[in-house]
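Quarterly update from the structural biology core.
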Amino acid sequence: MARASQAKRNVVLMYGEPDRFPPLLDAEPAVPDAGIVVKAKVWRWKEDSGWHFATVPKAQSEQIRSKAAGAKRGWGSVPVRIRIGETEWETSLFPQGKTGTYLFALKASVRKAEGIEEGRVVTATVVLRK
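Predicted structure, tokenized:
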């Protein structure tokens, strides 16, 4: 019993009244990543192919590369969330070898929802995922 009394006394000496610890503060809310805004021209893989892509300009590709150091996956791909207009989806950016840029695919559902055709310049917001 004497030890418990001594422990309580030590707490009082260190912090004042033992039942009056300062409240823990709530953690600051995480600020969502605003993303990197990209303007890119939509192009088709091959004339008879349905695959459409957009190439991220070099300056934004460098920003992505510096932010994505720990998030890269197979073939150097970077998991991202992309928003064009009102449409948002999860995909990956793929590095383009010697050019130092990335590209992303535009699914048919995205192209249809946003009225995107080959040759159009789109504005996309790219947010890195883990």
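Strands lie at 36-44, 52-56, 78-84, 87-95, 102-106, 121-128.
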